[in-house]
Amino acid sequence: MLLALIAYFPAISQKTFQERDDQQWIQYVNILNIPQKWVVHSSTSFRWRDTYHRGTQFHVRSGLGYQLTDQVRFLSGMGFFRPINNSSDIHHELRPFQEIQIGQDLGKTRLVNRFQVEERFLNRVETGLTDPVYMRFRYALNFTLPIANFSGNGKSNELQLTLRNELFINGHNQSEEKTFDQDRITLGPILAMEKFSFLIVWHNQISSLPRNGCRYTSILAFQVSQRINL
Question: Average pLDDT for residues 186-205, to the nearest whole number?
Answer without folding.
Answer: 96
